[in-house]
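Form 12-C: Joint structure prediction
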Amino acid sequence: MPNFPHEEFADALAANAEYIKSFKYSELTGVAQQGLAIVTCMDSRINPLSVVGMRSGDAKILRNAGARVTEDVLRTLVLATYLLGVKRILIMPHTNCRMAMGEEADIHALIQQEHGVDTRSLEFRTVSDQTKALKIDVNRVRAYPLLNDGVVVGGAIYDVANGKITPVDC
Ligand SMILES: [Zn+2]
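Section 2 - Result
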């Protein structure tokens, strides 16, 4: 029984039909041409490739709520550094991030209050001090023993108001 929700995705499918008319990336492989991986937030205001002047094929993009370094980010970075050409990793949270605007308990309480669902079995990994959290995350990657040798890791905060990334000493 066909069950793809065509109506809900009609705009995306129509746009894709246009996109493929001028598709120009068919020669690319999965190796990151610029050797870069960016770990950033799911925030819809961030276009990670554009932010650093890159395009399809150039970089690996890893995203989650708050740009946090989780087990799954580490798993992905290990694969990226051995198999997919990644030699530098930029951890890039952003200003005005919802994950840095409230305590873990407040977000659980908000969802409980508005939707009646108890989400406390999840850890959302909110941060109260974004710079401090970034330092912890950058150093977590730097200290991770399974990454390929010679990988360089940096942290920077992206400003959603003007598009600027500001490097942070970690
Ligand atoms: Zn965010």
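Section 3 - Comments
Residues 41, 43, 66, 94, 97-99 surround zinc ion (CB under 6 Å). Residues 62 and 76 are 8 Å apart (CA to CA).
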